[in-house]
Amino acid sequence: VFGLSSVAQVVLGRGEFGQHLSINLGFGIGVTLGIHAAGGISGAHLNAAITITHCILGNLPWRKLPAYLIGQFLGSFTAAATVFGLYYDALYDYTKGNFTVTGPTATASIFATYPAPYVSLLEGFFTEFVATVMLLLGILVIHDEKNYGALKGTQALLTGILVLGIGLGMGMNSGYAINPSRDLPPRVFTAIAGWGMDVFRAGPHWWWVPLTAPILGSLAGVLIHKLFIDIHNQPVPESGDEKGQPAVETS
User: Fold this and answer.
1) SS3 content of the chain, % helix, strand, coil (to 5)
2) What is the CATH number of the domain that holds 71?
3) How far apart are CA 129 and CA 137, in angstroms?
4) 30-82 residue pLDDT tens
5) Are the C-beta atoms of residues 101 and 108 closer than 8 Å to each other?
6) Within 13 Å, how many C-alpha atoms sit on residue 40's CB side?
7) Domain assignment of residue 238, yes or no
8) Shortest CA distance to 183 belongs to which of 78, 77, 94, 99?
9) Which of 29, 39, 52, 183 could form a disulfide with 210 if both were Cys (CB 3.0 to 4.6 A apart)?
């Protein structure tokens, strides 16, 4: 809701009620609050790519995957419906009732991601892949207790800042979906709510990229963290001047 509504204000307000920064802040705040809301209950599985990665790694039973995916889908779909209702009058005024995916008054991008006109499908795929790699690397180092992990209680805030950073640096090409659960349910909602099947044809046929690239990027991020960080970490000693160095005993 925070993310989509911030996009709606920028688009429908014609730049008078926010800019690129406000969109990224909206998504960062939403992620932070989502982790606080669901962290203690389910581990805050807000991202289908990360959930699937946990199943592949054996950290989450496959039998739980449908429930997590359904919850993510319903949450994101409901968020899109909420923002649609919140800004329905503004949408109608902006488009004169003609909801389009492309063109000067296109509004489908409020809800789902679409590549910029100059971006090829391959470039867009690579962008989503790299952005998700950075997301996973960031999450893993934030929670890495063998390394210099975040202070207890700050993980949600830092993850929100991580999403903000990804948006600030990698959001221009494709809107940084980095999450199938963030992209597909709102896209389905727009297809139902008046934009039609063009939401799946635009891009061209961009819709499958935010589903597949984040999953591959998530797996790659875990592999990179394992190879270049995790296997080189030593447990932090109970006492010592530096990690891995015994303390000098003093009387």
Assistant:
1) 65, 0, 30
2) 1.20.1080.10
3) 12
4) 999 999 999 999 889 999 999 999 999 999 999 999 999 999 999 999 999 99
5) yes
6) 4
7) no
8) 77
9) 183
